[in-house]
Design goal:
Number of domains: 2
Helix content: 25-40%
Number of helices: 10
Bound molecules: zinc ion
Low-confidence stretches: none
Mean pLDDT: 89
CATH superfamily of the largest domain: Vaccinia Virus protein VP39
Order of helices and strands: EEHEEHEHEHEEHEEHEEHEHEEEHEHE
CATH class of the largest domain: Alpha Beta
Structural class: alpha/beta
Strand content: 15-25%
Largest sheet: 7 strands, mixed
Amino acid sequence: MRPGTLRKVECDSCGVVANASHFSEQEVLTLYGDEYALNTSGAEEHLFFTKDGPIARSEVFCQWIAPHFFSGPQRALEIGSGQGNLLARLSETLPQAKFSGIEGSHRAAELARSRGLDVRQGLVTGNTELPAAETIFSVNVLEHIEDIDGFLATIRRSLAASDAEPSAQRLVLCLPIQNYYGYDLFFLEHVWHFTVDHVQQLLGRRGFKVLHCEHQHPINHGIGLFVCQPLDDSVDNGASVDGDYPWIRNNRDRWHRVFAEVNTWLETQPADAKIAVFGGGEVFALFRAFTRLGERRVVACIDEDPAKVDQTIESDGHNIIVGNIEWLRKNPVDALLLTLNPKYHGMVKDKLASVVDRVFSWSPYDPK
Ligand SMILES: [Zn+2]
């Protein structure tokens, strides 16, 4: 990944936000072919921690999207299938469907094939020849695609080649939406930032009728699900988005307030304070990049995911130990900063109450 300044621009007519600069073709090939680490490394997949215990990311998505697939035989193609976690689960859930995938990462595509899944390596552009399919689905990919028009046109060609009636064709998309308290605005590899209305308009204008839209999943917070069928090319089904769309700016401002709050707290901690963090995922990476946490020595990262415990996280040339709450009991620290989604703060604070005196939980600022 190229280091650099994060710059996003906002359309002053519709409020959509996009990266200010483009990735070159070579950068895209390297990023998704070789570097991208999410669901491509063969590692245990991301777990969501719920009141009922941990649940794997692919299980959450499988339960969410499977009801929107046809129940009978169909060719179902996943774009961006990673190492095949979701493909494998859906194949079990919908045994009559014939699943296949296309995945940018060489390593992930190979891993998926080694699990017996039909996955080929490649990125989907306007020129890609996809196999014919009645159902195409893609989870958290669209926001990475600079040429969305080409991407959607290629999907339409693949659906049309299935020779099924348009009413028997489906495109199922999941992607981050900005109507909620998301932080993907700070990700360089997320090219686009949409609200639900923006996605509805985009799909309508690119020849898809949105049959069903959901964006209040209790676990998949901040992700929208869009179930569509293709329409005739000439149909403009997208209600136009104009006027003031402040959510994306509000999201940016909320996180800037969080970063400022974290910096203020860090200033109150002595330079030699032993600081630990709770949560070794995206929020930790976000704070290391956008707050002064990156300048502090973090003695440990506490995480509940058993797959991460006893591993280390590399940060600016030194390794941070990952431990569980038991580790923390045996290795007291001076203060602990929560570096996980605010929806977990209450739960985690309860667990830490008897272990660490100073736990800093920043304000969620109106999470909806
Ligand atoms: Zn616009």
